[in-house]
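User: Round two. Same drill as before: sequence, then structure, for each protein.

Assistant: Same drill it is. First protein:
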Amino acid sequence: MAKRLVIVGAGDGGVMLANRLASKGFDITVIDKSNKHYFQPWLLHIAFNGAKEKSIEQTKLLPKNSRFMLDTVKLVDLENRKIVLSNSEMDYDYVVVDTGSFGDYSKIPGHMQLYQEFGDFHSTTEAAQRLWKKASTFAGGKAIIGSTYPIFKCPPSPLEAAFLFEELTRKRHVRSQTQITFITPFPRAYPAEPMNEIVEPIMKERGINIVTFFDVESIDPAKHTITSLEGDTLQYDFAALVPPHVGAGIVKDFCDENGFVKTDKETLQIGNFDDAYCIGDATNISTSKSGVTAHLESKIVAQRLLGIDARFDGRTNCPMEVGGHKATFVIGSYTQPVVKLKPSTFNYFLKMGMKYGAWQTLRTKMDFVMDWYFARTDPAKLNAKLNKQKSS
């Protein structure tokens, strides 16, 4: 009899996991509250370049022999192997949680009003289009871009937003009338020092002010001010802020205070359950909340469900655009520091190419290419190469 696998959430990792196990003896059910799958990195280009939405129906990404349920999961009860839906319940043999993370605009007073006025590049197509309307008509003044809270998905994205907005002001000939300030709760523009050594000089060269240790406490939309926990206040005419992110909080007894699932960083098991796993943004693992991480984690969970003792090494490989048709990649792992990889036009085209190969990648049709790429960009090898060049 086929083993009943329920994947809660059709994020990148969940979709890839379903495709990886489609012919491996599992009866697969995927549950999500939306039948639409978005290419989320493209929200940045909707917000700052006026690009069109890139989305597809979930059923077109999932294997034909899987079952898709359009429903809301209220609770995952690991002790009783039970999933509570909006109007029903179901049992499972194995469960994998891939419910992602979400912006919580209620955590910061005034943030919801700011979001309603300016939109953002971390939630929906409509919000990104709202931000584009503001960015594309901005005539000059004080612009604030950055993150409000240490936990959010896609760590490079606030910096990408600053670079793309700065580039837009130059294209629209309003750069000389514009003061751009990048805010972050971290002690540096990018949390990982090797990558910060790359991006901070570029920001200074382009006249982007950097304000560190700025934990947003409140926003006053009427006065157009943003105040930090440290007591500093900044004025804005334009604001694009990443909200604090939280998890779905649906796994009974195994979620932290922010709703993220308590997950073993190597096995990706939830607690001591060998029939329950979590991947992607939904975990509380201290690694990048990104599609690439979910991609790599889906391979580990697939192997473990097939009886292979695979372990996740914390690998990250996040693209970061810096404007001027150049990009870098944030590459690291649990044991390897982030590689100090200089931006290049080649990396930019690699990043942009992800848009065209996104759906085939989720269907796992690009695995041979991705496996080759990840092997070529192993952080240990890249760091060793850079250290050798530095010492020679």
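Second protein:
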Amino acid sequence: MDNHFSNAQRAEVLTQALPYIKKHTNKIVVIKYGGNAMINEQLKQQVMEDIVLLWLIGVKVVLVHGGGPEINDLMDKLGKKPEFVDGLRVTDKETVDIVQMVLAGKVNKTLVNLLEMKGGKAMGISGMDGRLIEAEIKDERLGYVGRVTKVHITPVLDLLEKGYIPVISTIGCDKKGNAYNINGDTAAAYIAGALGAQRLIMMTDIDGILRDKDDASTLISDLTLSEIEHLKTEGVISGGMIPKVDCCVEAIHKGVKNVVIMDGRVPHSILMELLTDEGAGTMVHND
């Protein structure tokens, strides 16, 4: 425990968080988790602690995760070279098996285990369980990379009702039993939309949307849907940020109140976002 704070200061911090706790209790918050915050072990522990803390104060947290680096590791061990078309991973039958093993197996169960060790009650499912994520081929050239066609949200609602933190790996399936690799941001947007979530938090490895991508002080903390189009035209939102922002827009169109893009590498950024005035990252919402 950090000894810089007196007990009185700690109590003051808690009372200041009270309005935010009231605001989010019993509300659904979807967290999309992956990338650097997942690789760094210390950060991973902190993210799990934050999620359990939110769960303990009554926030209905749903964790949607990726696992690109772990997929690359296993492919490397199996001597399989990753292939990309226009920056997207080509996923043949063998690769989709690897993706399923890593995401629905190792990564999912590791996160469930960590949440349980921190005092939470978690249950891991994949998008194939209860046909949560139905998908079809997105582009023939990419193989088993899926486009989401339907979300059957009942399994997630059942887990929330029973008091669990659902931990979801982003594998989809079709009616013929094929498995598909689904983009994590897209899956999170569809799931948050189907839940009518209060908030979707996208944890990335950048501060949020910056007017100047090389200057963290140019963070845009608040953004409406109509402003997004202007920023795309101006080239402020470009490259890899475009699909991420498109997922935010998709989520809001599907009924999510607001979406936050923030740096998952900052310790306790989830708590700063939900339980303080300042927030963290860029919040996207309707006009």
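The mean pLDDT is 91.

User: Perfect.
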